[in-house]
Design brief:
14% of the residues lie in helices and 37% in strands. It has 525 residues and is mostly beta strands. It has a domain of 300 residues: Porin. The strands form 3 sheets. A 16-stranded antiparallel beta barrel has the order 1-2-3-4-5-6-7-8-9-10-11-14-15-16-17-20. Helix 1 packs antiparallel against helix 3. It is elongated.
Length: 525
């Protein structure tokens, strides 16, 4: 635009200069001065036609040359002007939502969906359906599976989890409600014994809620959130909802660590790649409290690039009934790496792995960390028993055919003297399985599966899982309920005691290993 303006403004100057040149008498050469002018006829016809002046090629060439000179001058003028410099922030503006700048659909424990079909301005609904058929090679007579929060029933089609609810976002106000139904609404809450303190029947008050919190968002840094209520815990990497996990049956590290917290959390996003989260909660996966002090915890989540993620969780609290001097510490640490990404390939289209290491212990009240005796029932302040936790797990996932097919293999290890994080078996076995300080427990597991992802909303999975323990722990052919596999009166009375129709001399059939075949269909809207 500037070039055109200068050209148009200079055209009148060009024509005026040309006209001045035409009116100026030409300079004569010496030859022209010495030669006389030709003689004109004495009589001339005044009406004779005089030819019109013809524009010579010289004038045209002069105009073109001048225009070209002006174009060059304009180009030189523009080149001397300072050019705007585009910064990285201008070329790639920061997203309003942290971690929205990359593709994290490959994560173990994260959603693989890229959009929500029913999203709206004020509310984003969510529906999860998790169904499975599990076959235990132990074939327990009571169809009961022990030591798992993912599978509960043998040789039956089971609705493991039905979640319904969503997220509210009205200006800076935020909230989430996510109801839960199915087997997990019983399998997970039964591991919390704080509900037996006092009245109000917290089992039934909370069991149908997996998440329920209200909060506020502050437009500071890259976002600050404060939430109060019931929310998922990602200690142990795996998500509470199976739709987000690479595997169906989690390793000990994940299955024996919290699935939820009840309390308050503060989320701070200093950058769009880092989250700092602080917890003030009732306790270690508990609706209520065993003692007076609350539990404290944190999470650090860092994703410098979309192919790597680091997660660090920590917890400290008092979680032993009638023993406020015993303090629990726990550290959970995971790294996830995607080392191949060719989404358009019909061969191997993506590959990633995750590794998790946990270490924890309890100190005081008759126990100590990584030392002490193993004399169950005889743990004192002067002669404490060992009470700690070390576990690790690793998984490798490969995707094929443009990420429509997945193959996973993985496993883990646990050592937990004192058994304070071991899931207590169900049924009559809950009374016979020794969980006193001074006991020992080690275990390992392996699993592999094949998954089909026809759409972002649906997953079909076939998995084989083997778990082994150092002591009888899993339900054997005789089951954990009674001689014929049936019970009466229910697992718990209102006062917390166990009822059964089994004779007093009957003992549960616990074995040290179990292999399961799992077929699951997972849906999310």
């Amino acid at each position: 635009m500037l070039q055109r303006f200068l050209l148009l403004s200079l055209i009148p100057y060009v024509f005026l200069s040309m006209q001045a040149q035409a009116q100026t008498p030409p300079i004569q050469t010496p030859k022209e001065i010495s030669e006389p002018a030709p003689k004109q006829p004495e009589q001339a016809d005044s009406t004779a036609i005089v030819p019109a002046p013809v524009e010579t090629p010289t004038s045209k060439n002069s105009l073109e040359v001048r225009l070209k000179q002006l174009e060059e001058e304009v180009k030189q003028f523009r080149s001397q002007q300072p050019q705007p410099v585009s910064t990285a922030s201008e070329s790639a503006p920061a997203s309003a939502e942290p971690f929205a700048w990359g593709d994290f659909t490959w994560l173990n424990g994260g959603s693989r969906q890229t959009s929500r079909l029913l999203d709206s301005k004020y509310f984003t609904p969510q529906i999860d359906i998790d169904t499975n058929y599990t076959f235990s090679l132990n074939q327990p007579i009571d169809n009961t599976i022990v030591g798992s929060t993912a599978t509960a029933r043998h040789n039956e089609l089971s609705l493991a989890f039905l979640g319904a609810g969503g997220d509210a976002h009205i200006g800076n106000v935020r909230g989430r409600i996510f109801f839960q139904y199915g087997a997990r609404s019983t399998v997970v809450p039964r591991n919390d014994l704080t509900v037996l303190r006092g009245q109000s029947d917290l089992y039934n008050a909370y069991r149908y809620l997996s998440e329920a919190y209200a909060g506020y968002h502050f437009n500071k840094l890259h976002g600050i959130n404060i939430d109060v209520g019931l929310f998922f815990a990602y200690v142990g990497l795996f998500s509470y909802t199976q739709f987000e996990n690479w595997g169906y049956q989690a390793s000990f590290t994940s299955d024996n660590t919290p699935w939820f917290f009840n309390g308050a959390r503060l989320q701070i996003f200093p950058t769009d790649r880092l989250k700092v989260e602080l917890w003030l909660i009732n306790g270690w996966q508990s609706y209520g409290k065993f003692n007076q002090l609350p539990g404290f915890g944190y999470q650090l989540l860092y994703a410098p690039q979309e192919w790597v993620k680091l997660v660090f969780n920590g917890y400290v609290g008092t979680d032993t009934q009638n023993n406020a001097s015993r303090v629990r510490f726990h550290s959970d640490n995971s790294v996830l790496v995607r080392y191949l990404n060719r989404p358009g390939s019909k061969g191997i289209s993506r590959a990633a792995f995750s590794a998790t290491f946990d270490i924890g212990f309890e100190e005081g009240g008759g126990v100590t960390a990584f030392r002490g005796s193993h004399d169950a029932g005889n743990c004192t302040e002067t002669a404490p028993c060992e009470q700690d936790f070390i576990s690790t797990m690793a998984y490798h996932m490969m995707w094929f055919w443009q990420n429509r097919i997945g193959w996973m293999v993985g496993g883990g290890f646990i050592r937990n003297p004192g058994r304070y994080l071991v899931l207590v078996p169900t049924g009559v076995a809950a009374a016979t399985f020794d969980t006193r300080s001074g006991t020992e427990f080690t275990g390992w597991d392996l699993s592999s599966n094949v998954s089909w992802f026809p759409t972002e909303q649906l997953t079909f999975r076939a998995e084989i899982s083997h778990h082994s323990a150092s002591v009888p722990y899993y339900s054997g052919p005789g089951g954990v309920t009674g001689p014929d596999g049936y019970k009466c009166g229910g697992l718990y009375d209102p006062d917390g005691s166990i009822r059964t129709c089994a004779p007093s001399s009957w003992t549960p059939d616990l074995v040290s290993a179990e292999t399961k075949l799992i077929f699951a269909a997972l849906f999310r809207l």
